[in-house]
Fold this protein.
Amino acid sequence: MGDRAQARAACRVAPDDQQARLGGGHQQMVADPAVADPIGLITEAGSELGPETIRTVVTAVAGGRARSRNLAKFLATRPAVLTDGRSPAPRAVGDLLIALRKAGASAISPPVCADCGKGLRSLQRQGQDWY
């Protein structure tokens, strides 16, 4: 067997070996409720919007799966942002708060100015803070 053939054979991994190398970390990430169901986190915060409306708003704000996962991870680590609106938080969270309020979720806080504490209808950022 030549060098190239040996290298290809070494790179082939049996499905059981590949699963063992993942070590369950991949399965835990998918099973994480925050990543699997960011809509549930918003509903638990007291939003009176229906799940389909929330899903539509989250999809419009988050766009792709990666941004949606990051948004869900942040909401899982700091769900209070939905009710207090305080930064520091990613811009997507501020955009989500504004969009949920526009959709009629009065229990969800608007983003709050880092200086004066006033609720914001649009968002400007400096670093991680909203103004």
In short: Residues 32-130 form one domain.
